[in-house]
Amino acid sequence: MNRTRKHKVLVILGLTAMMMLGVSANAFSWGYATHAHIDDQLLRDSGQLNRNEIYGGMTPDIFNYLFDLPYQQDLYGLTHYQFTKVWKAADNISDKAVAFGFVSHNDVWGADVTAHHAGITFGQDEGYVIAKARLVKAFMEANVPEYQSLNVPDEAAIMIFHELVEEAVDLKITEQDPGIGFTLAHAALARKPNTTELLVAAFGQDIAGLSGMGDTETELFITQAEAAFRNRMVFYGWALAQERDTAIQLLAVQTGGLAESFLALYGITLPPGTDITPLIAYAIGVSVDLCDDYKVEIDATRYKVKRELRARGIIY
């Protein structure tokens, strides 16, 4: 690796450590580039409304990274199951664009359903991502002694490989849509300035009830969560826009920290100085190879979501 490229990777890895901290199991659905790819084609095909739709399609996961909160599961439930509150709170076309994307993501009949409940072309009984995660797990158990030696419990392994499959599909999407990383990052950078006001209107009272915070504290909480999430999306999009080896390295470092956290929950502590990044990077490569059929599933998901949105009058 030449000096310039090595410096670039080190800078990106440093930013990763600062900006990509903390993930909960609820973060697992489709990856953010996948949501961006789907929303980019659902309704508006250019301009600020399209960018609002794309960012809106990612924001249901805004609270997923706050895993230390005792009511984090309830926050997930609000954004993924009570998603119509955002649509009802939108009172202008810019808000409707954000809300349109937000609703498209949902875990009842939206894009997330095919990821981890009912795949259309693969994993019909458990979701495309879950089914692929099981295949990756089986391959690693059968072929990789370094993984075998960790003795990872099944539940933790599925969570980790679930994340890798999401990343693999995002990487596959960058092959057919090379600009999707920048599209994702630009959507986050250029998102509607008062997006947080829409989220406060939709969920403020519910969050205040869960947390015991007053109105001012609740608004600040939502504002700060959105700002942190937005930064993550900008970085994630930028990372995906790098050449493939660099992108995989970045994803491996990010997911390596996640994997260590999951392993610690199950009483597995890696020896001091252990670097599992190469193992994670290898598993991402395996996941990419096992997701060659991703396009038919993503296309089917997009068509399904488009039909569901129209059937429910979610249009503007």
Give the tags.
single chain; 316 residues; mainly alpha
Proportion in β-strands = under 5%
What is the domain total for the residues? 1
The run of helices and strands is HHHHHHHHHHHHHHHH
Number of helices: 16
Uncertain ranges: 1-27
Major sheet description? none
What distance lies between the first and last C-alpha atoms, to the nearest angstrom? 50 Å
Q: Mean of the pLDDT scores?
A: 88
Provide the structure class. mainly alpha
Q: In total, how many beta strands?
A: 0
From the spread of the alpha carbons, the general shape counts as: globular
Helix content: over 70%
C-alpha-based Rg, rounded: 19 Å
Structure report:
This protein has 316 residues and is mainly alpha-helical. The protein contains 16 helices and no strands. The model is unreliable at 1-27 (pLDDT under 50).
Task: Present the secondary structure layout.
Layout: H1 3-19, H2 32-42, H3 47-58, H4 72-81, H5 84-89, H6 93-104, H7 111-116, H8 128-143, H9 145-148, H10 154-176, H11 180-189, H12 195-211, H13 215-240, H14 244-265, H15 277-290, H16 294-311
Quick overview of this protein structure:
The chain has helices at 3-19, 32-42, 47-58, 72-81, 84-89, 93-104, 111-116, 128-143, 145-148, 154-176, 180-189, 195-211, 215-240, 244-265, 277-290, 294-311. It is an all-alpha fold and 316 residues long.
